[in-house]
Amino acid sequence: MRQQVAYLGPKGTYAEKAAHILTKLADFHSPIFVPCNGLHSVIKSIAYNNCDAAVVPIENSVEGGVTATLDALWKFPEIFINKAIVLPIKHALISDGELSIISEVLSHPQALAQCSEWLSENLPNAIPLPTNSTSEAVKMVKGSKFRAAIGSKSLTQIEGLKELAFPINDVPGNCTRFVLLSKESNYDVANVSSFAFSLISNKPGALLKALNYIADYRFNMSKIESRPSKRELGEYVIYIDLEIKNKTSIESFLELKKDLKPLCKSFVDFGQYFSEKIELD
Q1: Are strands 221-228 and 236-243 parallel, antiparallel or unpaired?
Q2: Is the Cβ–Cβ distance between 271 and 196 less than 8 Å?
Q3: Do residues 28 and 69 both lie within one domain?
Q4: Which domain holds residue 45?
Q5: Within this chain, do residues 66 and 116 fall inside the same structural domain, yes or no?
Q6: Is the same domain home to 77 and 178?
Q7: Residue 222: which CATH number?
Q8: Residues 77 and 100 placed together within one structural domain of the fold
Q9: Rounded to whole angstroms, how far apart are CA atoms 105 and 127?
Q10: Domain total for the chain?
Q11: Bridge partners (DSSP) listed for residue 56
């Protein structure tokens, strides 16, 4: 049976590129790609068994964690990360009009944030308008002379629009990590372990005690981030990525989990997986 893979659509998004690469790396045979309108729809498609897998952005080198993805992984602990890739992100300003008359700029909130300095310098009076995806933004500016969209350069060919400026992202090394999600955990080849927890007690040193356990097992944290638990003000969920060097590291992580869980109100293991950087043409 061909696997259905949800991603943030419509066609032409960076998520679609990531979906094709990740499913190839995961040896999916002739997958069916299902574009979804918004990250919540992507996550729900796998959480409610409408798709076999999903591809979502989880972290950007400029804007940090993608909160919708992090919150969803916490909300649906039966979903696991199986693979990850890091893609370089180079945004273009796309329109039917000319740069001098652009008064509105549309894109996904992350893309708008990643180009905020360029916009303030080159289009200081333009109004930023958030959309569900970069591809949706490009579709919405077709036929308008005063609107422009931020998105992948390839979208100019798909939609028949003009490239007004490229690249416009504020940081040249801008990149995003995309993950392949499924309901099957993966304990094979891995170089990253991801998990999150909330603490039982909100007392001085409570988080330090948990971090000391990680240090005792000699793990290096490649990421630590906090998000509100949404239960009460002042309560947070801590998201952590650990570097995995070999199978012994995975065995050590399983022991670490046993030590951490007595400190935690909730603990969610997102999985152990292989992450690699991909260079696009």
Answers
A1: antiparallel
A2: no
A3: yes
A4: 4-89+174-182
A5: no
A6: yes
A7: 3.30.70.260
A8: no
A9: 6
A10: 3
A11: 179
Q: How deeply is 261 buried, as exposed, middle or buried, from its count of CB atoms within 10 A (0-12, 13-18, 19+)?
A: exposed
Read off the pLDDT of each residue in 73-85 and give the average, rounded to a whole number: 94
- Tell me whether residue 233 is in a domain: yes
Instruction: State yes or no: pLDDT of 188 exceeds 80.
Output: no
Q: Kindly report the pTM of this predicted structure.
A: 0.84
Residue 187 lies in a domain: no
Query: Which tens digit of pLDDT belongs to each residue from 34-46?
Result: 999 888 899 999 9
Residues 240, 209, single domain; the answer is yes
Cα torsion 270, 19, 221, 218 to 10°: value is 70
At 99-125, the pLDDT tens digits run: 999 999 999 898 999 999 999 999 999
Rounded-to-integer distance, Cα 266 and Cα 238, Å? 10
Q: What are phi and psi of 203, to 5 degrees?
A: -120, 160
Residues 14 and 52 in one domain: yes
Rg over CA atoms, the chain: 20
- Residue 268 in domain: yes
Q: How many CB atoms lie within 10 A of CB 169?
A: 22
Helix (H) or strand (E) segment spanning residue 208? helix 206-216
Distances (CA, A) of 150 to 28, 103, 171, 266: 31, 13, 15, 39
Enter the DSSP assignment of 204.
Answer: T
